[in-house]
Write a structure and sequence with these properties.
The complex is a heterotrimer of chains A (about 110), B (about 220) and C (about 100).
Chain A lengths: L3 H6 L22 H15 L5 H9 L3 H6 L2 H15 L5 H19 L1
Chain B lengths: L9 E2 L4 E2 L20 H15 L5 H13 L2 H13 L1 H9 L1 H7 L9 E6 L4 E6 L8 H4 L4 H4 L1 H6 L4 H7 L9 E6 L4 E6 L11 H7 L2 H5 L8
Parallel strand pairs in B: 3-6, 4-5
Antiparallel strand pairs in B: 1-2
Helix pairs in contact in B: 3-4, 3-10, 4-5
Chain C lengths: L9 E4 L18 E12 L1 H4 L8 E10 H4 L10 E7 L3 E3 L10
Antiparallel strand pairs in C: 1-2, 1-5, 2-3, 3-4
The chains are: A mainly alpha (about 110), B alpha/beta (about 220), C mainly beta (about 100).
């Protein structure tokens, strides 16, 4: 059982040497969301809006449980949103409002 | 680290689910009007807001998708075949990987620096990123899921020989294994050994022997 | 180009807590190895992770560590090694003459 200290000292992304099972030689074709999310994060890094280290730090700060459940690009999207809000590039309010607009748009388009 | 990953988990390669026996979270949703995916909506909202603010353009994102599509392991395979047939190029590739791939016409689009590691009869190189998923994307494209998975990242540095055997690669005891943890700024490409019996092959035929996995160091090219 | 550490020099990777974002994995902290090569200077990722995009560049090195020094129960050949990149502020000098055995 990990102690409270271990949970801080050994962040969830630092895996070197830990026990683990066999490697499953898995792969999958990128989904449109994954490709688009990857491209977005590359563009954000090029403009130093969310640099690569900020993106990684944002993922690490999600904590072990969320890192374990979210897929790779879901973590990137959440990390980017948190870093951008923290830096004052966007506000939580405008991001939330825009998400509602997009959801309405997508739902109408699907109907 | 919690123990959530160690037992009773469903491993999807790049993430796991911690509740044994629970329904597969990726099973299709049965309801007729499917709610748009939260994370898809989130990333679209970020993109739209930043475009509206004039901080990025939609064209940049579209162009980056095309760049990602254009970078495939075939680039690395062609690079290796050239190194096998042109000793001067091989020398330049080993001396300065970044300059040599640009000379070869590969767009080093992410601005990272490349170190090329030569497999020899004495040394077998293996590349891993224990902290995330660092990978030579300009030459190999995006990493496979297993490269980003917990078992690969955890075990490559600690038991490389056992791990390589799982990939069907038995490295003899008199061959040194060098594991490279791609943990910071450099990126690594393995230059495999040219198999015996390939003297008459063209560069294109040679490239076909060079799979992605041989350039990560988990397998070796097979003789044709 | 003068650098604090030179190729083949024996070094120890600092064994210290890192409450923020760092690129020095836990499994190498406190371990000894040798400088494999000197790399350029880069932005310090420990500041870059918090939005510092210029200034304060730090020297990066590749360090070669024997597997047996990392894992006491390593069962492969004694020549097997691991190499990784370590920033200068994580490296400490080791007195070569006193020998580094047993660490």
């Amino acid at each position: 059982m990990a102690t409270k200290r271990d949970m801080i000292v050994r962040p969830a992304h630092d895996l070197g040497g830990l026990p683990a099972g066999p490697v499953v030689p898995s792969d999958h074709e990128m989904t449109p969301f994954e490709k688009s999310c990857h491209a977005l994060l590359n563009v954000l890094a090029a403009h130093k809006l969310v640099n690569t280290e900020e993106k990684r730090r944002g993922v690490e700060d999600l904590g072990a449980e969320i890192i374990g459940e979210l897929t790779y690009y879901e973590r990137w999207a959440v990390s980017a949103s948190k870093v951008l809000i923290e830096k004052g590039v966007i506000t939580s309010e405008e991001l939330g409002a825009r998400m509602n607009e997009i959801r309405d748009r997508l739902t109408k388009a699907a109907a | 680290m919690t123990n959530a990953h160690e037992t009773g988990t469903v491993d999807h390669g790049d993430h796991t689910h911690g509740t044994p026996g629970a329904p597969d979270p990726h099973a299709p949703i049965e309801t007729a009007a499917e709610e748009p995916d939260y994370f898809d909506v989130l990333h679209q909202a970020i993109r739209e807001l930043l475009v509206d603010k004039g901080l990025i353009t939609a064209d940049e994102v579209r162009a980056m998708v095309e760049t990602l599509d254009a970078h495939r392991p075939a680039l690395g395979s062609a690079l290796v075949a050239r190194a096998w047939t042109d000793p001067d190029f091989k020398e330049r590739l080993l001396a300065d990987g970044t300059a040599a791939i640009e000379e070869f016409g590969i767009d080093n689009y992410d601005g990272t620096r490349l170190i090329v590691l030569e497999q020899t009869p004495e040394v077998h190189n293996l590349v891993v990123c224990t902290l995330c998923s660092c990978y030579p994307r300009p030459v190999l494209g995006l990493p496979p899921d297993w490269y980003k998975s917990r078992p690969y990242r955890a075990r490559a540095v600690r038991e490389p020989r056992a791990l390589l055997r799982e990939f069907g690669t038995d490295v003899p005891q008199d061959v040194t294994i060098r594991v490279h943890d791609s943990n910071a700024n450099m990126r690594y490409l393995v230059l495999p050994m040219r198999p015996a019996g390939t003297e008459g092959l063209s560069e294109e035929e040679l490239a076909a022997l060079v799979t992605r996995d041989t350039m990560i160091g988990v397998t070796t090219p097979r003789s044709p | 180009m003068s650098t604090r550490f030179v190729p083949d020099q024996r070094v120890r990777i600092a064994d210290r807590d890192a409450p923020g974002h760092v690129r020095t994995p836990v499994y190498v902290r406190g371990k000894e190895g040798r400088i494999e090569r000197v790399l350029p200077r880069f932005l310090n990722p420990e500041r870059e992770a918090y939005g510092v995009n210029e200034g304060g560049e730090v020297r990066l090195y590749r360090v070669r560590i024997e597997q047996s020094a990392l894992w006491p129960d390593y069962d492969g050949p004694a020549d097997d090694v691991l190499e990784l990149e370590i920033y200068e502020h994580w490296l400490e000098q080791v007195d070569d003459r006193s020998g580094a055995e047993g660490r």
